[in-house]
Amino acid sequence: MAELNPADAPSWFDFVTNFDATKKAFDDNYTALLQVGPQIDRYPGLRAQWEKLVSEGTDHYNTLQKLQTTRDYAASWLNWLQSGAKGIFSFLGFEGFGNDGALGFPVAIAIVGIGVAVAALTAISYWIANAYELAQRLNQQTAIADAILKQNPNISVDEAYSQAAGHINAVMGAPSKGLFGDLSAIRSRK
Fold this sequence. Notes:
Layout: E1 2-4, H1 9-36, H2 47-82, H3 88-92, E2 108-110, H4 114-151, H5 157-172, H6 183-188
Antiparallel strand pairs: 1-2
């Protein structure tokens, strides 16, 4: 449990705002990613990246569900502060105690601290970027495969997608392993 301190109100406001935008972007990308599932084998070399993103996405979905409580609590607290807070006890529902109690300084309890909450949103934002990269790769590969099929109708769909993957890898490089995917190579050099 972490404390909500009025001095941190701007950080919590940023968190609440960023949470809402991040959650919407995550939901849109995660839904789109799941919809690609039935066709992923059409894209040579991308199944592993897709499976990793789905697995990480499931973890991030669970994290966002837990952070929703913190977001809602922080938003309530910010509204309470903005309304001319009388004291911590009025926020918690103990009007009779006032602000002259043992605490002296208004502090409320949050589910997680601001640092943990922001770090979680940052990790989820990197996941969104990785999902976007995969979407770009899938879109480009589909466009190139369609062009190959138009030019050469005798070629199989699988061969067209394989050739398209070669073109994409030549331009964009090999499929990404995500934010932390290449750290294993760094560790193995030690």
